[in-house]
Amino acid sequence: MRGEDNFVDCNFGNIGVEGGRLAGNVEPAQGEQPQPQQGRFNMFLGVVKTLIVRSLIIYIITSMFKKPTTVTTPDGVTPIADSIPNVNFFEYGTKFDMYVYLSEDSLKNVINESELIWKKTDLEYGDWTSGPNNDGTYTIQKSFIPSSNLKNNGSIYLHVYFIKKTNSNISKNDPYVIHAFKQLNKFKKVKFLKTHNLLTGETSATPEHIEKAKKIETEIISHWHPNLTICLVTDQTNWTKGSIPEPFSENLEFLPNHRYKPMVFFNDFWNMLRDYQPINKTVKTLDLTLTFQPLSLFKWQMYSAQTMRNKWTAGFLGDTFTPDPNEDDQDQDSLKEALLETSPYILAATIIVSILHSVFELLAFKNDIQFWKERKSLEGLSVRAVIFNVFQSIVVLLYVFDNDTNTIIRISCFVGLAIEFWKINKVLDISLDWERRLLFILPFIIFREKGSYAESSTKEYDRLAFKYLSWVLFPLLAAYAIYSLVYEEHKGWYSWVLNMLYGFLLMFGFITMTPQLFINYKLKSVAHLPWRMMSYKCLNTFIDDIFAFVIKMPTMYRLGCFRDDVVFFIFLYQRWIYRVDPTRVNEFGFAAEPVEEQPQAIEEKSQSIENEKPEDDKKND
């Protein structure tokens, strides 16, 4: 059962780089470790479900801003909202020119013609048919030599001016000139891990990385992406000043005479993380491809939603709970690749199925808690499997802390571990021995098996099941440990143990479900299993199987998606051959179907009733 591998639910697709030298590395040219293919599908589903949740949050929050917002001036005066609607300063068909400058000055108070890299004249507002591709877009490619300041974590900006043909003044101070700018380089945090082969001491890291890893753990490095799209939003909506929600209020600039400037949007949404290159002293030239494109208001809202989501996440959760930007970018890259490479019909089906997947996970979690909360007898259940799940959760939690993941993932793993510990209280009797103390302070904790488990044959079957399981599990664990020690790099022996155990549980964790199959076989019954919870997990497993052939992924992982199905089908086969007797009375004294009384029993019951009659009644008979 895929759901039984509870350590997979925490979505560890972006937790460090196992056996690599960099975690969160954005430098593919210098040997970035690729993301493990095995977790790609799980991460894709997780990103889609996260996107759905984010969309719902955005919808709910934006609905709260439908009322006129209250703006306060620095003097503490609340202005009255303008009731007269404002119209776009650029009407459809307006002729304008575009000037693009490349400068290291973010303010750009003085126009320097030597910094002009693109001048495009005779553009028309609302034109979707011009250009080489007849879609209203124009492209230019440039190369420039970075300055020494830019190579030393400096910044460089792109300034864009849109000017009507009737205006020849290029100045951002002119209220009728549309000016926008964007920082082209992006600062990313790179983590340096001192990993090496524990046997040979060798590492695949470059000497530069080895030296940096000895001195610092993280470094802020400027990165460059060669593509950027300049979008002029095409829209003629009449907006009322003082009563518009975010993000419109942050991007609309109003003019006198009830007009507003069209919005400018720098679109870098489709820039993949793997395409960024670090800007350092070895860089000789930087390439830049600029594209001008008209943009509809609907698409602008879709792109702006991502920016608003980042602000709301930081505002509501704070920096402590905000995901690492590099990890978030990797999630976004997975979503972008799916949008680019997958059919729209499949994407629509993915969104629908992802919602169902989330609902089934929630129902399975709820029924699992309810099953163990109401369970009185442990007959037929594997107690050792519950204890083993606690071990799994501890390994996952330690692995998460060792790889410096964000706080949200740590909390989710800690909650999962707390639930597994709660289950121990349901399968074992726990008491404190105050006469024996640990370190002369803490009392000894005594675990005793519950009577319903110890006094039944389930205990012996459980012991035999794990005995047979160990014959398979321990050789596989030894083989995987040797492979990880010989061929992979680690930070130390502690990290090697955690990475080895986590990787082994991720690969062979489904084997731990076989003891329950053995107990079912010995008892010739499956009535003790939480079938409602297992049904929800079964549905999620089949959903994973369907998408294993829909989503692009390695063949070995596609085959691995069906490993849980084998166990599920065995459970279903056992449910078919070990039929539940509907006439059997349960612990509450009820049966699904009434038992037909035998003739002899009916006769004996009648005789007993006859004997209980009074003498007067017998004479009357």
UniProtKB/TrEMBL annotation:
- CC annotations in GO: endomembrane system; membrane
Q: According to its UniProt record, where is this protein located?
A: Membrane
Question: Where does this protein have compositionally biased stretches of type Basic and acidic residues?
Answer: 602-621
Transmembrane segments in this chain: where? 345-365, 381-401, 468-487, 493-514
Pfam families this protein is in? CLPTM1
The keyword Transmembrane is annotated on this UniProt entry:
yes
- Keyword Protein transport listed? The answer is no
Q: What is its main location?
A: membrane
The entry's keywords: Membrane, Transmembrane, Transmembrane helix
Question: Which superkingdom heads the taxonomic lineage of this protein's source?
Answer: Eukaryota
Q: How does it sit in the membrane?
A: Multi-pass membrane protein
Extract the ranges annotated as region (Disordered). Answer: 595-621
The record's similarity note reads: Belongs to the CLPTM1 family.
- Its recorded name reads Cleft lip and palate transmembrane protein 1 isoform X1
What are the top taxonomic ranks of the organism? Eukaryota, Metazoa, Ecdysozoa, Arthropoda, Hexapoda
